[in-house]
């Protein structure tokens, strides 16, 4: 499903250059649940960005769901991010002044879904994540745990094959964390391919397989 | 579908920055309004000039007179020979000689006593008197022409018929008194104020005016000279073809007046000036070349060319001014949208991350700019009409009345509005392109760290 072959990402040039990913190769099977650990600055987020094509790798091959991410056009990549990938960002990146529903609907605005269907799909996901009473609340008024679930809802609303979750539980209390991980477990059971970034051993305990990155290299597979 | 969703995203952004959007649209509206205002003013003025100057003196017309210096000593030296020679030319359609008495002459009118407010029962006015050939009255006034043709100067019982310029009459009827004739205003000329009162009172002056007895006092002058002869006159009508300021009588009548005044028989006929009408504008060149050796020539073609040239130059200046204003408001849009893009970087990045193409993001911002342009353009149309209305009412209140003063100084064809709005939108889009490109190039990964 996700296949990386000698992927290198170097930021900057010359003296100031920084190798964030150093000849990374890995293979994530369809339907598998992979944990990604490593210290701050080790390159976890960069790895996810390279997989989703938000960041172009300096060298190497990336193939995700049959798409050559490195050489795909902007339009192709956009459609790929829209349909194949659900992204939960490290710090959510929601629009505070919009409601939970408006935030969740966002990826569907870029598809040919009708307005009523869009809102129905978004409301369904929000309901499933236990936010039925917050659908029309502005995100700015929600708690961090609720925001985290809105971010997850936005990632799931297009029914992606792959979920890339970057520290989804970093900012929330352990009860909310537990709920979120339960949802992810359910998604995994439903056949979704999941890559979850965390440096929290408690979280990683629940993940079937974890790889560790250090200074841009995979050190434990 | 996708496009409507993208415009929806634009509208969301617009409504979040409504104040800013309105200010930017206000900038565009000022540009659009000034374009419409300036062009309408130019068109209105050009129209007035064409109606008053070029239409009565079209391309086929050539006016022949002596040079200014010669005119001082010999006013009437376009002689019959030139007129006859020109009339024989195959390329000449008609020759209209025009005379003026070479002695002081006033026109008196006895205003009927039923108008009790008349302080002065009889008023004399020094006024231009032209002798014209009947043909000069044009086709439009066949009946007037017949009256002029059938006028017999030897029949003492007939009063001398005269016409006045139709447009001048219309301004009199409107109660517009020529305050720009200071010499008329210096003395209290009850004649004009009476006409004004009558006009305002009666609505239409025409029939009343034509029933009044007028009289030419040959030799009478403002300085107090006594009249040598008094000739009864009758206003028979109005024509657009005759000189604006003054009255026009049959040339035959003027010949007779010379006899009365100079007490001489068989005075050789000479004219003050003559208008030669060519059959075709292409013939004008050769005629002008031939005549300019001996005479001072003004050709309609040359006047038209000068006027056209003048207006084209002014038009270019006006376009430049309008465009500069528009471009300045475009700079406003550029700055405003650039700030928007910077502030909204994370929103843009999220959109990109969940599947927006670069093109989609660019579209959102170009659409926002175009919408600002559209709103500004429409507001500009209203603003321009407001400005024109204010300018017109200001002009009516402040400018002295003068004959032929137009009702409005502005003419606005519908396509001026369309062009101005299109210009406004185009400038807005052009100004919105760089920020849109900037938005499309937002580095998603860096913004979303
Ligand atoms: N756009 C960039 N320009 C320059 N350097 C960058 C850029 N993005 C990331 N880096 C650097 O690359 C390295 C890896 O960053 P990355 O964000 O992948 O780390 P991380 O493992 O996600 O850390 P954290 O756990 O703190 O989120 C860091 O040293 C970071 O400073
Ligand atoms: Mg990170």
Kindly describe this structure:
The complex is a heterodimer of chains A (221) and B (449). Chain A is of the alpha/beta class. In chain A, 33% of the residues lie in helices and 27% in strands. Chain A contains seven helices and ten strands. Chain A has helices at residues 44-52, 74-83, 100-105, 115-128, 144-156, 174-189, 201-205, and strands spanning 2-11, 18-28, 33-38, 59-64, 67-68, 85-88, 162-166, 193-197, 209-214, 217-220. In chain A, strand 1 and strand 2 (18-28) form a beta hairpin. The two termini of chain A are 17 Å apart. The relative contact order of chain B is 0.20. Chain B has 16 helices and 13 strands. Chain B folds into two domains: 6-55 and 307-448, no CATH class; 101-269, no CATH class. In chain B, the strands form two sheets. Chain B has an eleven-stranded mixed β-sheet with strand order 5-4-8-9-7-10-6-3-12-1-13. Chain B has a two-stranded antiparallel sheet with strand order 2-11. Classes of the chains: A alpha/beta (221), B alpha+beta (449). Magnesium ion (MG) binds next to helix 1 of chain A.
Low-confidence spans of chain B: pLDDT under 50, at least 5 residues?
A: 182-187
Most extensive protein-chain contact, per-chain counts: A-B, 28 and 25 residues
Number of strands of chain B: 13
Number of helices of chain B: 16
What Rg of chain B do the Cα atoms give? Answer: 33 Å
What's the helical proportion of residues of chain A? 25-40%
- Hetero groups: adenosine-5'-triphosphate, magnesium ion
How many separate structural domains of chain B? 2
Give the C-alpha Rg of chain A. 17 Å
* Overall morphology of chain A: globular
At CATH's second level, what is the architecture of chain A? 3-Layer(aba) Sandwich
Principal-axis shape of chain B equals elongated
Average the pLDDT over all residues of chain B and give the rounded result.
83
Low-pLDDT runs of chain A: none
Q: Supply the number of structural domains of chain A.
A: 1
Order of strands across the main sheet of chain B:
5-4-8-9-7-10-6-3-12-1-13
The strands making up the biggest β-sheet of chain A line up spatially as 6-7-8-3-9-10
Helix/sheet category of chain B: alpha+beta
Mind telling me the CATH superfamily name of chain A?
A: P-loop containing nucleotide triphosphate hydrolases
- H and E string of chain B: HHEHEHEEEEHEHHHHEEEHEEHEHHHHH
Characterize the quaternary organization of these chains: heterodimer
């Amino acid at each position: 499903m996700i296949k990386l072959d000698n992927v290198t990402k170097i930021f900057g040039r010359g003296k100031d250059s920084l190798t964030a990913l150093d000849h990374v190769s890995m293979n994530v099977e369809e339907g598998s649940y992979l944990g990604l650990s490593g210290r701050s600055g080790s390159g976890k987020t960069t790895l996810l960005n390279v997989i989703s094509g938000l960041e172009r790798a300096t060298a190497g091959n990336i193939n995700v769901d049959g798409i050559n991410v490195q050489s795909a056009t902007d339009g192709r990549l956009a459609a790929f991010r829209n349909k194949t990938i659900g992204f939960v960002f490290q710090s959510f990146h929601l629009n505070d002044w919009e409601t939970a529903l408006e935030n969740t609907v966002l990826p569907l605005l870029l598809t040919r879904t009708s307005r009523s269907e869009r809102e129905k799909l978004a409301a369904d996901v929000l309901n499933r994540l236990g936010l039925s009473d917050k659908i029309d609340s502005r995100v700015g008024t929600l708690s961090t745990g609720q925001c985290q679930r809105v971010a997850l809802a936005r990632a799931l609303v297009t029914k992606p094959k792959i979920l890339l979750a970057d520290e989804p539980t970093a900012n929330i209390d352990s009860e909310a964390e537990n709920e979120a991980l339960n949802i992810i477990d359910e998604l995994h059971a439903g056949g979704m391919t999941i890559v979850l970034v965390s440096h929290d051993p408690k979280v990683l305990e629940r993940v079937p397989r974890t790889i560790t990155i250090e200074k841009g290299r995979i050190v434990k597979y | 579908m996708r496009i409507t969703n993208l415009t929806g995203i634009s509208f969301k952004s617009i409504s979040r920055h409504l104040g800013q959007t309105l200010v930017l649209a206000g900038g565009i509206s000022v540009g659009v309004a000034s374009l419409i205002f300036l062009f309408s003013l130019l068109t209105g003025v050009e129209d007035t000039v064409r109606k008053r100057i070029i239409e009565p003196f079209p391309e086929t017309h050539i006016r022949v007179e002596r040079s200014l210096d010669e005119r001082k000593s010999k006013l009437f030296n376009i002689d019959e020979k030139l007129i006859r020679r020109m009339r024989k030319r195959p390329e000449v359609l008609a020759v209209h000689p025009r005379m003026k008495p070479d002695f002081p002459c006033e026109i008196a009118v006895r205003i009927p006593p039923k108008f009790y407010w008349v302080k002065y029962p009889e008023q004399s006015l020094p006024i231009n008197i032209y002798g014209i050939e009947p043909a000069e009255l044009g086709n439009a006034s066949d009946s007037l022409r017949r009256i002029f043709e059938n006028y017999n100067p030897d029949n003492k019982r007939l009063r001398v018929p005269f016409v006045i310029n139709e447009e001048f009459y219309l301004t009199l009827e409107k109660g517009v008194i020529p305050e720009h004739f200071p010499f008329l205003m210096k003395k209290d000329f009850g004649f004009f104020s009476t006409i004004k009162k009558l006009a305002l009172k009666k609505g239409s002056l025409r029939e009343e005016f034509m029933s009044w007895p007028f009289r030419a006092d040959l030799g009478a002058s403002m300085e107090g000279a006594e009249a040598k002869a008094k000739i009864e006159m009758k206003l028979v009508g109005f024509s657009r073809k005759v000189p604006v300021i003054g009255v026009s009588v049959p040339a035959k009548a003027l010949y007779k007046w010379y006899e009365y005044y100079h007490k001489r028989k068989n005075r050789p006929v000479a004219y003050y000036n003559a208008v030669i009408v060519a059959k075709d504008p292409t013939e004008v060149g050769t005629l002008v070349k031939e005549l300019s050796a001996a005479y001072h020539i003004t050709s309609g073609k040359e006047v038209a060319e000068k006027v056209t040239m003048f207006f084209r130059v002014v038009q270019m200046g006006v376009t430049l001014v309008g465009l500069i204003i528009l471009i300045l408001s475009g700079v406003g849009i550029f700055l405003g949208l650039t700030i928007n893009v910077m502030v909204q970087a994370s929103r843009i990045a999220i959109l990109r991350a969940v599947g927006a193409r670069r093109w989609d993001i660019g579209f959102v911002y170009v659409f926002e700019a175009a919408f600002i342009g559209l709103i500004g353009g429409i507001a500009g149309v209203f603003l321009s009409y407001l400005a024109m209305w204010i300018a017109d009412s200001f002009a009516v209140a402040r400018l002295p009345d003068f004959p032929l003063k137009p009702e409005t100084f502005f003419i606005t064809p519908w396509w001026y509005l369309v062009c101005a709005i299109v210009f406004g939108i185009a400038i807005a889009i052009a100004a919105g392109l760089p920020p849109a490109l900037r938005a499309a190039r937002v580095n998603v990964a860096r913004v979303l760290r």
